[in-house]
Design brief:
Layout: H1 2-32, H2 44-56, H3 65-93, H4 104-131, H5 141-168, H6 177-185, H7 191-215, H8 223-232, H9 265-273, H10 279-283, H11 285-288, H12 295-314, E1 330-332, H13 334-338, H14 360-369, E2 371-373, H15 382-386, H16 389-392, H17 400-404, H18 412-426, H19 431-443, E3 477-479, H20 482-487, H21 489-504, E4 509-510, H22 521-526, H23 529-545, E5 550-553, H24 556-565, E6 575-578, H25 579-588, E7 601-604, H26 618-625, E8 631-633, H27 662-671, E9 677-680, H28 683-695, E10 703-706, H29 707-716
Parallel strand pairs: 3-4, 3-5, 5-6, 7-8, 7-9, 9-10
Antiparallel strand pairs: 1-2
Helix pairs in contact: 1-7, 1-12, 2-8, 3-4, 4-5, 5-6, 5-7, 8-9, 9-12, 21-29, 25-26, 27-28
Length: 719
């Protein structure tokens, strides 16, 4: 009778837990269904490879070595222990007889070792969160619950094994070190008492396991299910490529994202895949310099808002069992402000003394502002109440957050979609951004200088001939100069250096001259898709007119836009190069010979749009290494993890009004390497770094130069 009651109780408890689990997942899926259908079919082969590399290989997790190793032990420990869980459940249901497994002693040893490793990893994770108190990690009772559940699972496994050994009267064994110790400590128990202790621990393990199962979809640990799916359906296109808006859709009531339902379902999957590890915020230039934006809080706030509004629309409670939870209030960023909360992060409020970057003020501000409100979820506005405009306009679109995210979340597209709504639907744009876009629309450049002066720089570079497409109709390579290289006095020197090097290398090139227009990168990142598409169409028509088959540019932003985004609008069969790629090729072919030594200690700064967006890291360094006398240094944050200069996402044309200046922080990181020169391969970065050295009063001893300028010096000598 007891065995049947035991078995029936097992079925009842397990079945109810599985029902609750499925209900919690189903309700969240219903919320996601409120979003727009995502028309992005997965590339099966490449996406499976991505899932394998990221989920099983932990490649991104191991970028933070200590946290990565912790997760590695927990992840694979749980996989090993699932086989043990099946064995343990069978043992309890069979009256004490374990599964007849081959190599049982070795199997038992792997279970005990795995349990110990997971226990140790959980303990160290708790220390990092509550002992070291890492700024990127959330604290409180929710993370503690998970750690306690993991600890309870491991302890009940070991205790069950130990009491089972005592019940069966098995001798101590080196293959069962922990359970042998437990059995030895319980040696005074009668077999009946040991049996009772085993079943107490067995039931405790089962209840904790099922509690964890039910808790998973209702917590950040939903990533156990959603992260592999998110990685599989992730972007197969060039990274950072923005979606195309159908501006001719006459049924569209708005453009961009103005309410949570405007996001695509694939974007919403990001919300539930987030593990709240804070790695994105930890590397964000805005968060690190006291701005309002925190990528982690961006995702978690959108998730909370979707959950609250989704529950209100679908009448499906996100929490199960529903009777155990009262309906929670909606959350809003304005609630704390109404009750006297902080108005903004502020670099000096809580920033670590002497720190180059510190996310503490931003994360503290986010936690203080995000709180319950008496309003209904439907009354909470996405822009204003969930995401403030200061957060939306703080993003430099550098993608360091996405590069660090272990579950494949994409943050930048969401911010740009919010900007699109503000610009195209609301007409709400910061004054400097509006002025830059108006100038681009009217004169084709952000300063509003005359369109007829775009090619004026060619007459100011010492008599060096710069042919236009009309002068040299048989050109092979179009040099797309860009607005910076055409109008900015400092960037013109880069254009001059590059032209001299192309001529030295025998490149048959031409420029469009005054027919060239802005690439549209700045308007698109600022949310003005209409202006971008106009510029894109006009430029593509010009390329076709002159039969362009290869384009080179010195601006990574232009390079990325032409290479990765123009093809969707009709640019076909055109090779797009960055000037460092072309120059590296000329050096490799021996068409350029750097014969003059350049005795400088150079630290190279990676442009976000050249590096993280397009994977160009080695070519600029190859050029510098080819120059005699150059000592190449590296910053702590370099290559994939290089910090943004602060100019991306249209912020080149906007004034920073909060916290520390991003370019100053990046300059400080460069100066830590004790350079005599800072190398760059982007006119935006060069401008920001030169400004940074001036603000740090280091410009008299540390110069900022483009790679092309440094190579020009090595090829032609000082002039």
């Amino acid at each position: 009778m007891l065995s049947w009651l035991h078995f029936a109780s097992f079925l009842l408890v397990t079945g109810y837990a599985l029902f609750l689990f499925c209900q919690a997942v189903r309700h969240r899926y219903a919320y996601m269904r409120l979003g727009k259908a995502s028309g992005r079919p997965p590339d099966w082969q490449n996406r499976l490879r991505e899932v394998t590399v990221q989920a099983l290989g932990h490649t991104k997790l191991l970028k933070d070595r200590r946290s990565g190793v912790i997760h590695l032990f927990v992840f694979y420990g749980f996989i090993v222990l699932q086989f043990g869980a099946l064995d343990l459940i069978y043992t309890g249901l069979s009256g004490g007889e374990p599964l007849p497994l081959p190599g049982r002693r070795v199997f038992g040893l792997t279970q005990e070792i795995a349990a110990l490793l997971v226990l140790a990893a959980a303990g160290y994770a708790a220390y990092r969160r509550y002992g070291e108190r890492l700024a990127r990690l959330k604290r409180g009772w929710k993370p503690a619950i998970v750690l306690l559940l993991i600890g309870a699972l491991m302890l009940t496994v070991l205790l069950s094994l130990g009491f089972h050994r005592a019940w069966e009267g098995e001798a101590a064994s080196a293959y069962a070190p922990v359970s042998s110790l437990i059995a030895g400590a319980a040696s005074n128990l009668t077999p009946a008492a040991a049996e009772a202790a085993f079943f107490v621990c067995w039931w405790a393990h089962l209840v904790v396991l099922l509690t964890f199962l039910v808790y998973v979809p209702q917590s950040k640990h939903f990533h156990l299910i959603t992260a592999p799916i998110n990685l599989f359906v992730g972007r197969a296109e060039p990274v950072g490529k923005l979606s195309k808006l159908d501006l001719e859709d006459e049924t569209a009531e708005s453009f961009g994202v103005g309410k949570i339902e405007d996001f695509g379902r694939g974007q919403m999957l990001d919300f539930f895949a987030c593990v709240e590890c804070g790695r994105c915020t930890n590397v964000c230039p805005a968060s690190g310099t006291g701005k309002a934006l925190s990528p982690m809080h961006l995702i978690t706030k959108l998730r909370d808002h979707l959950t609250e509004k989704g529950a209100a629309i679908t009448s499906k409670s996100p929490w199960v069992p529903a009777f155990a939870f009262k309906n929670g209030s909606a959350h809003s960023m304005s609630a704390a402000a109404e009750s006297g909360g902080p108005a903004g992060p502020g670099w000096h409020e809580g920033a670590a003394a002497g720190a180059v970057t510190d996310i503490g003020p931003t994360t503290d501000w986010q936690r203080a502002r995000w709180s319950g409100t008496d309003r209904k979820p439907e009354e909470v506005s996405l822009i204003g109440d969930v995401m403030t405009e200061s957060e939306i306009w703080a993003c430099t679109t550098c993608r360091n957050c996405e590069d660090q995210c272990p579950v494949g979340n994409e943050h930048v597209d969401k911010i740009v979609d919010l900007r699109r709504y503000l610009v195209l639907t609301e007409g709400s744009v910061p004054h400097e951004a509006q002025r830059a876009m108006q100038n681009i629309e009217r004169q084709g450049n952000p300063w509003g200088l005359s369109r007829g002066d775009r090619a004026r720089w060619t007459g100011e570079i010492g008599g060096i001939a710069v042919p236009t497409v009309k002068d040299n109709p048989g050109f092979d390579t179009l040099f797309f100069v860009g607005s910076m290289g055409s109008y900015d006095n400092r960037s013109r020197r880069i254009s001059r250096a590059f032209v001299r090097l192309m001529q030295e290398g025998g490149v048959n090139f031409a420029i469009l001259g005054n027919e060239e227009k802005n690439s549209g990168d700045t308007p698109r990142r600022m949310g003005n898709e209409l202006l971008f598409q106009q510029l894109c169409a006009e430029n593509i028509e010009t390329f076709r007119k002159y039969g362009v088959r290869r384009i080179v540019t010195a601006c990574p932003h232009t390079f990325n836009t032409l290479k990765n985004e123009y093809p969707e609008f009709g640019l076909e069969g055109v090779e797009v190069l960055h000037h460092t790629q072309l120059l590296d090729g000329l050096l490799q072919e021996g068409r350029i010979v750097p014969s003059q030594p350049v005795k400088e200690r150079i630290v190279y700064h990676d442009s976000c749009y050249l590096g993280r967006y397009n994977g160009v890291y080695d070519q600029p360094r190859n050029i510098l290494r080819a120059i005699e006398g150059v000592e190449l240094a590296e910053m702590d944050r370099t290559r994939e993890n290089a910090m943004c200069c602060g100019a991306g996402g249209g912020l080149m044309w906007m004034e920073e009004s909060a916290g520390k200046r991003v370019n100053v922080a990046r300059t400080e990181q460069a100066l830590e390497t004790r350079p005599t020169m800072i190398g760059s391969a982007c006119p935006y970065c060069l401008t920001m770094l030169e400004d940074g050295t001036k603000q740090k009063e280091a410009d008299d001893r540390v110069k900022a130069r483009d790679v092309a300028e440094i190579l020009e010096l090595a090829v032609f000598g000082a002039s």
